[in-house]
Amino acid sequence: MNGYGRSRRVFPRPQPKKCEKRGLAHAMAANYTENLRIQRPMRKILPATELLSAPQLATLRRRSDLVGVALVAHAWLVIGASAALAVMWPNPLSLVVAIALIGGRQLGLLILMHDAAHGALCRTPRLNRLLSQLFCAWPMWADTHVYRAYHLQHHTRTQQPDDPDIILTGHYPITRASLKRKLLRDLTGRTGYAQRKAQFMQALGPREWPWSRRRAHFWRQLGPQCLVNLGLLSLALVLDHGWTYVMLWLLPLLTWQQVALRIRNIAEHACVRAADDAFGNARTTLVNLVERALFAPYWVNYHLEHHLVMWTPCYRLPRLRRYLFANGLGERIETERGYLAVLRKVTLDQADDADARKRKRASGTFARGFEAA
To answer: Is residue 59, in this structure, part of any structural domain at all?
Structure first.
């Protein structure tokens, strides 16, 4: 049994000697392994056995192939139904509603990919890999292997200076004017465009490489993602609605999905109680049905519970919360009610400081991690 509550790895960690051959995903995994071997002590993680009884742990460990398939199918059914709404009743309102719903489910696909990276989406490892890559990661221009390599470092180094996600929320609180600018960049597609452009440029490799090498490097980085998205475009063309791939897939991806992703990131780790407190270095946000549809698909709002017992399948996180309360630990959980309350907590009602507009922005994607641009 390893440290993530399962007896075998769903995504085997590659060895450093294969990094050059197999590309960025394996290089990141090798760097992660090497960092853990030679340097910093990890942040203390509470063993699940100190939080929960053996029967409770046994219940939480149960994973289901059927539920995993149903969750992925649900995401795509919502996407398809939302697209059908805009096609059957073409007007500005239906288009806006469809973009918001699809963008929310696109985030949902990333959340299900995240579950698979923890080996929690399906019980069968092969099905876990297949669903995650083919139906969650690749349509979103992501890769589960790459995501897992850096995401596990986030769990071991949560809210520490070398947490790979600290750049996203470590500078909060910010002014309300600054937050409005960030959300406007997201909503108008500027953030999404910049991230995808950087992703494609990185996949092409340095300009001094010969074109054959750049082409091979691009294929290793984004080949499957291109094929899956070509399949989505082909499906739209076969249905005689080719425009829907641009307006109802790429547009939500570049706009509303970015808004939902930012708000989710803020809610999870901005201005939390204490970096070294296992019950206070992340936040759970209690949400209503609208917030769940637009910002918090598939129980992602139970983020502190996820950090406490990271191998728990997403659909068992509410049960985990009930167990923690039953065991007398619930009051210690950093909790906020609704995303508006979170945004009020992490913003300042004052004018921008002189350097607010000059602060370096995060560059990267959900699946590959972020760094200062």
So the answer is: yes
pLDDT at 8: 39
User: In this predicted structure, what is the pLDDT of residue 364?
Assistant: 63
CA-wise closest residue to 33 among 51, 12, 54, 6: 12
Virtual torsion, Cα 178, 180, 181, 183, nearest 10 deg:
120
Residue 22 lies in a domain: yes
User: What does residue 229 show for φ and ψ, rounded to 5 degrees?
Assistant: -70, -30
Question: Which residue's structure tokens are 């063309």?
Answer: 237
For residue 92, being part of any structural domain is answered with yes
Question: pLDDT means per 10 residues in the chain (373 residues)?
Answer: 39 42 42 40 74 96 97 98 96 97 98 97 97 98 94 91 91 95 97 96 96 96 98 97 97 98 96 92 96 97 97 97 97 96 94 61 61 57
Contact indicator for 249, 102 with CB cutoff of 8 Å? yes
Q: Is 55 helix (H, G, I), strand (E, B) or coil?
A: helix
**Rounded distance between C-alpha atoms, residue 122 and residue 3, angstroms:** 18
How many Å is the Cα radius of gyration of the chain?
20
With tokens 């549809």, the residue in question is 293
What's the pLDDT at 362? 63
Report the domain count for the chain. 1
Q: What is the pLDDT of residue 350?
A: 87
Residue 11 lies in a domain: no
Place of tokens 């922005």: 361
CA dist., res. 31 & res. 343, Å (int)? 35
DSSP string, 118-184: TT-S-SSHHHHHHIIIIIIIGGGT--HHHHHHHHHHHHHTTTSTT-TTHHHHTT--EEHHHHHHHHH
Domain limits for position 339: 16-372
**What confidence score (pLDDT) does residue 356 get?**
55
